[in-house]
Design a protein that fits this description.
Helices cover about 45% and strands about 20% of the residues. By secondary structure, the chain is an alpha+beta fold. The strands form five sheets. Strands 11-12-13-14-15 form a five-stranded mixed β-sheet. Strand 9 (about 240-245) and strand 10 (about 250-255) form a beta hairpin. The two termini are about 25 Å apart.
């Protein structure tokens, strides 16, 4: 959300490697925010949707696991690195829902046949296909058969479709038809080492300064894996990563940023206009979910799940948590409900209105701050 910006949505995902996306409407905004701040060149919701539709960006369960956007060029090796650990983490639910190796193989074949040759299917359509063959068509059994197929490299996101009411619905496609390099055979020792190095390099150069524990929590891997990945990253791209000590903790980041961090001068400073900076981000934004041990630098608790049906997405004031927001739609207008932790100044209110207007340009519709 700060310069330098990526060009297109796919470039954002490629840079970040994986972007949490279970709140799909808000996750689109995550990509647009990192593409441009210019009104003339900013990425729109429609452009993000198109990148998902054409398969440049794929959406699937990976890492912790939850829904993530991943670039199609990265999903093969990243899923190969994650799959065993994801299946292990789901083992209890597989047992609870009666999914064993044999039943998963059978349901996988049914699901693969249903979406073969570009026949992308919605969840409802896949539920019908499984139900006709005696498998669960609803509930946890259905959900975990789908997830098993995703993690096993059978299914991945297809081209979204619109429901009769206009809501965007995900479809599923055949993994091998959307991923150019599936690479889902068990990784050799050397292949796994290389994957760990690639993950560490991509994570710390895009999110640093961050700790080993931050990366482990983000990736779902062990701290031992991340430490090994840092070592291998030094072989893959010598000199690309550096480290610093902050508050007694070791942080890793792109090497060119180390001296700037120590001196307090950003290598490409943004001109200080004296105007406060307001950002509306989703609660699962990588600015939040990319960290665990060092998340306290955000200045508040996020993600936060209010008990009073209040907004759960995050308002940042000059990079620090300052409030909560959500959108709603009525009569062709997007109403943005913002609740600040303390009354904004006139300058902060103006900056907030500017950010709401930018959100409207992203959506391609009128917005109203409420």
């Amino acid at each position: 959300m700060r310069a330098p910006y990526a060009g297109r949505p796919g470039d954002v995902v490629r840079n970040l490697l994986a972007v949490q996306s279970q709140e799909f409407p808000y996750a689109r905004w995550t990509l647009a925010q990192r593409s441009s701040t210019s009104a003339s060149s900013m990425v729109t919701a429609a452009e993000v949707e198109q990148a998902v539709a054409d398969g440049t960006i794929l959406r699937t369960h990976i890492l912790r696991p939850t829904w993530h956007f991943v670039h199609r060029d990265d999903l093969g090796w990243l899923m190969a690195l994650s799959a065993d650990r994801l299946h292990q983490g789901n083992k209890g639910m597989y047992r609870q829902t009666g999914i064993d190796e044999d039943s998963a193989a059978k349901s996988g074949r049914i699901l693969a046949a249903a979406v073969a040759d570009g026949a992308h299917k919605t969840r409802e359509e896949l539920a019908e296909a499984l139900g006709q063959s005696g498998f669960p068509s609803k509930g946890l059994g259905f959900i975990y058969h789908l997830m098993h197929a995703e993690i096993s490299g059978v299914l991945v996101s297809g081209s979204p479709v619109r429901s009769a009411g206009g809501a965007l619905k995900q479809t599923y496609a055949l993994f091998d038809e959307r991923v150019p390099d599936p690479a889902l055979l068990p990784l050799t020792h050397e292949g796994r080492e290389q994957a760990l190095g690639r993950l560490a390099l991509r994570y710390f150069t895009s999110r640093g300064p961050a700790t080993v524990k931050d990366c482990a929590a983000w990736s779902g891997l062990t701290m031992k894996d991340i430490k090994r990945g840092i070592d291998v990253a030094g072989d893959i791209s010598p000199g690309s990563l550096g480290s610093v000590q902050i508050d007694g903790l070791g942080f890793y980041l792109a090497s060119e940023e180390v001296e700037a961090l120590r001196s307090g001068v950003h290598p490409s400073p943004v001109k200080d206009s004296g105007v406060p900076r307001m950002d509306l981000i989703q609660c699962y934004d990588e600015y939040v979910m990319g960290y665990s041990q060092s998340r306290h630098f955000l200045g508040g608790t996020a993600p936060y799940f209010p008990e009073d049906n209040g907004p759960m997405h995050v308002v940042l004031l000059d990079g620090r948590l300052a409030g909560w927001w959500r959108h709603g739609f009525s009569g062709g207008t997007c109403e943005v409900d913002v609740r600040m932790n303390q009354p904004p100044t006139a300058e902060e209110q103006a900056a907030l209105q500017s950010e709401v207007d930018r959100y409207g340009r992203f959506l391609g519709m009128e917005t109203k701050l409420v």
